[in-house]
Amino acid sequence: MKAAILENQGVITYKEVPTPTPEPGHVRLQVKAVSICGSDIKRYVSGHRMYPIVLGHECAGVIESVGAGVSKELIGKHASVIPVVPCFECEQCQRGYYSACHSYSFIGSRQAGGFADYLELPERNVLIVPEELPFEHVALIEPSTVARHMLALGDFQKGQTAVVLGAGSIGLMIVQWLRILGASLIICTDVSDENLATARKLGAHVTLNPLRDDVVAEVRQRTGDGVDISLEAAGVPQTLEQTVPITRPRGKVICGGNQPLDKSLPMSFIENMMRRELSIIGCFMSYSAPFPGHEWTETVEALLNGGLDMDTMISHRYPLAQAPDIFAKIGDHALTHRKIILYPEGASL
Ligand SMILES: [Zn+2]
Ligand SMILES: [Zn+2]
Fold first, then answer.
1. Which of 30, 85, 124, 155 is 20 to 30 A distant from 191 in Cα terms?
2. Domains of the chain: which residue ranges?
3. What's the fold here for domain 2-140+310-343?
4. Residue 66 forms beta bridges with which residues?
5. Tens digit of pLDDT for each residue in 136-166?
6. Spatial distance between the Cα atoms of 320 and 323, rounded to a whole number of angstroms
7. Could you tell me the distance, in angstroms and rounded to a whole number, from the CA of residue 346 to the centre of ligand 2?
8. Model confidence pLDDT, tens digit, residues 185-208
9. Region 147-282: CATH code
10. Low-confidence ranges of the chain (pLDDT < 50)
11. Ligand 1 centroid distance, CA of 267 (Å)
12. How far is the CA of 21 from the centre of ligand 2 (A)?
C-alpha cells in the first residue's frame, strides 16, 4: 500500500510500504478520507517523538478485513477512527478518564495512523457510523468530539453565554456546539477576519479581532461582569490571559489550546482568578465512559440531523499522494486553510 510517512522533522515522503495484516481482535480499515489536524502540523514542523511514523488520526474508512475473534459482519461497515488506545485496566481507565491512562497509545502519533491506504487498529477503536454520512464528514468526528468534551468539562448549560478564543478548527467546532446546545450569546475572537467570518456563518453572534478590538472591554460592555464560560482554543498566552477578566465571578475557563512551553503569564492572572473565584479547567482529548463517550455519539447524531455543518469546516481537498507538498506549503505558511481532507488513491476525491 501507499502511505505518507513522517521520516524526520519537516520531511514527509509518499511511498510503498507493507500493507498491515489485522491482528486478533483488530480490523483493517480501508481509508476513505483523512483530515490534517493542527497537531499533525506541529509534529511535522517542530519534530516528533519517533520516526518513521504515519501520522493522521482524523480518519474515516470502510472495514475491509478483520482479525481472529472479530465478527465478519463488520466487513463493509463505515467507521470513524477513535484514536486513543487506552489500556482499560489502570486506575484512570477504571475511572473512565481514558486520556489520563498510564500507558495509552495513540493512532497517528504513537502508532501508525491514517495517512495511508489502510489502517490496522483494535476493533474497540472503530466507531461504526451510518453509511449515509459522507466520509469527509466522518473524518471530522474526532475534532468535533474535542469541542463537545470542552463544553462537557465546563458543565455548559442551555441559555449560558460564552466566549470562544480562537476560530481555528477546534474553536469553530466549539462555536457550532454552543449553537447546537443553545447558548444565548456566542462571542468569538481571532486575529483572522476570514476565520471570524466563518465563525459568524457557523453561529457566532459577535466576533472580535484583537488586532482592532479591545476584547476585554467589548465583552464586558455586552455582558456586564463577563460570560458564564470562556473557552481558550488559540493556544497563545495573550488569549489565555484574557479569559479571566472576560469570565463572570464563579464562571468557568476551559483551556484547550496547546500553549508554548517557554512563555509565562503575570501572577496577576492568579490574583484575578481568585477574586472572581473562577474554575480553570484543562481539557485533553475527548473521552468519557462508556468508551469512547457521549461526545462521539452526540457528534454522529448532530451529523445526521444537520446540526453540525462540516462542509463549511473544509477548505481544501487533495489526493494523499500530495501530502509531502501540502505539508511543505503549510510549514511555509503558504496555504491559508481550515480543514484539509486528504484522499487515498482508493477513495474518490
Ligand atoms: Zn486532532
Ligand atoms: Zn489505562
1. 155
2. 2-140+310-343, 147-282
3. Quinone Oxidoreductase; Chain A, domain 1 (3.90.180)
4. 27
5. 999 999 999 999 999 999 999 999 999 999 9
6. 5
7. 35
8. 999 999 999 999 999 999 999 999
9. 3.40.50.720
10. none
11. 31
12. 25
